[in-house]
Design a protein that fits this description.
153 residues, 0% strand, mainly alpha
């Protein structure tokens, strides 16, 4: 299953799922950081909240989007698309303690994958409203990635 095979409604369902999983990943990273690293813990919590904030925009877009006559995928298909575009979210964490460097690296990967995902959706969008919507979220995700590149977190 490829993104191009999905209707706009299915893409929005995938976006909602991705945002929930991204927020979950950031909250998990925050919980695993050493207790004395409050600055990075708060930053991860803010990233999770921002991802959750995208959900309201996605729901508004979903409300404006009619259901297609035929669905092109099911939950298994959506998971396969997620795995292709969000390998960091779908990969098991592995063992060992979570330190600052590892947490930031995982968060960077998630934000980079997310930005690329939304840019791909924007490029494939069939109408300007959808294109603008996906470009806006891609810019938000790119901004998160840029913040993570800064060393003062």
């Amino acid at each position: 299953m490829k993104l191009t095979d999905l209707s706009l409604k299915e893409k929005l369902l995938l976006c909602r799922y991705a945002e929930v999983e991204c927020a979950r990943k950031f909250r998990h990273l925050a919980a695993e950081l050493p207790p004395d690293d409050q600055k990075l813990t708060r930053f991860m919590e803010r990233l999770a909240a921002e991802e959750e904030g995208h959900l309201a925009a996605i729901r508004r877009m979903e409300e404006m989007t009619p259901w297609p006559h035929v669905l092109h995928t099911d939950e298994t298909g959506l998971r396969a698309v997620m795995k292709e575009h969000f390998p960091t979210l779908c990969r098991p964490r592995g063992g060992g303690p979570m330190d600052r460097e590892r947490a930031v690296d995982v968060a960077r990967s998630v934000e980079r994958e997310s930005s690329e995902f939304y840019r791909t959706l924007a490029m494939e969008a069939k109408d300007q409203t959808a294109r603008d919507f996906f470009e806006k979220i891609a810019e938000d995700e790119s901004g998160h990635f840029q913040k993570l590149l800064k060393t003062e977190i």
